[in-house]
């Protein structure tokens, strides 16, 4: 884990470009699309730097008062906090001014690789900024605590909006602005990847972009190697160094209720904390709920662990209601912004959205993550992603390989350690979409079609299957699962899934060895006793997936390679309803026509699917959420359309997620939606109504 660079910035192999002359027109268009998007974000970035330098050097700035009898900041503090910001601003302003006219007059003769090469050659300025970053942040925090005037300004710096934006200004904290240059290098490197992907090898820009990418990757690698460990560490009262390795928000089950905690993994201790409630303007602090030295920490196996304490589970329909409310509130916020609505109204809607997202984050996780201390105490977290649980377990087990000693922290040591958490944390906000900056990608909305083809690289035969996870509403959830391919080293699944995306940015694939050992008692329905053989993640790049064609890729994980294909259908396209040309089936046919033909009030397909789900699917985790295999769903669709006499036999043998998926497909293909166009606005208004009393999750 890195304090400075949170994103995965390790060098990646260069994307394969199109060959000479191949799809020249399409490549030209794609390069312009990539550059246009990059220019828009570059304008926002320059405005942010300008706000920073404007505050530092303007007529009423700290610099102007530094030599007066009542300075806001000393000259040394100014030089520390604003170090290299002016230089970075000038570099990017020149880059933007040179690139902008080239994109505006875009054609096959335009070249811009030399601009990116020059930008990459100036990364030494960023190196100096990064080396000073932690000191600048600490200095700004100390100045905020000691100077109310500086604190007030640093919590609400005004940033000019883009030229075509209806918002003239936005407010950003100084802490957020200080992080922007670090984040920018990573984003620029990803843009170079995209440009190379769409640039022919014989294009004059290609070697220049390649050189810029190589310089950027080497720079990012050197930063990761050169980061001073003390920057992610706290010094104990005994003079020893305790380094932060990983931190994040997890849901803990405490006294039979769910509580959101911030968990910190140091080199020798795991600490569970919550943010103290403080009055406005006061410095935030953490309160330690408990800690376990890693020498005393053990993971109980499923058969050894006790069944989870009774926690009131949130019914699935209530979770779905929350998601609909969040979606409705997002739409309202966009409308208000488009109509230049009052900022108070927008803030009120954002607050309501945060409350619903927080409740969803708190109540949706179901995968148990147990931690046991040798002194007899046990703790239970609930996670929504097995990928995340695996990351925490692996990080702890890696540290436990060192020669660790048991210890007890004194009250002073615990106070120092807990006090350091606020400064050292790498995860600053709870993972909800309402915490995203306006310039961050909103993610993809629609349906991702994924075919999991095969895997190779296993050293010995196993019972292998894969699961797919995507991020929805800010956190990851499992969305699909292949069948088990037994006793093999080269499974060939070739299974297709349709996964709904809700602001999604990443796809994760986990490969498991299925456990058939009945002695491994499963005390929790949500416990996964199968062994993870490998796991990997890819970014869902809109420019790659938003094409109508299938895109084939490979995820590498621990020497294992999983091949898959995917294509994306936007929400707008998926909502287009085309009535069936033949009226003999049930899919794409009006409900009134089907019920009249069947002489019933509810279509036969609805009755049979619901009955089968109630019979076999009530205990299934993720029913109606986890995707069924697309070929199974299509087979059921054909049988229902043909009114085949073997329907019941086929239903009883079919995977329950495929049956749930068939029912969802039936509703989606109706010529008109169940919630009619006339009544839909009233429905959305009801969904957006203020929720009742929110359950306390921070206690």
Automatic annotation (TrEMBL):
Top-rank taxon, per record: Eukaryota
UniProt xrefs under InterPro entries: Abr/Bcr, ABR_PH, C2_dom, C2_domain_sf, DBL_dom_sf, DH_dom, GDS_CDC24_CS, PH-like_dom_sf
Sequence ranges assigned to domain C2 in this UniProt record: 426-555
Signal peptide residues on this chain, from the entry's feature table: none
Domain Rho-GAP: 589-699
Listed GO MF terms: GTPase activator activity; guanyl-nucleotide exchange factor activity
Ribonucleoprotein as UniProt keyword: no
Ranges for domain DH: 30-226
Residue ranges annotated for the PH domain, each copy included: 243-401
Compartments where located: Cell projection, Axon; Cell projection, Dendritic spine
Keywords assigned: Cell projection, GTPase activation, Guanine-nucleotide releasing factor, Synapse
Example GO BP: intracellular signal transduction
A single GO cellular-component term on record: dendritic spine
Pfam families, A to Z: C2 (PF00168), PH_19 (PF19057), RhoGAP (PF00620), RhoGEF (PF00621)
Keyword set includes ATP-binding: no
Start and end residues of each stretch annotated as Disordered: 1-23
Protein name: Active breakpoint cluster region-related protein
Organism, scientific name: Propithecus coquereli (Coquerel's sifaka)
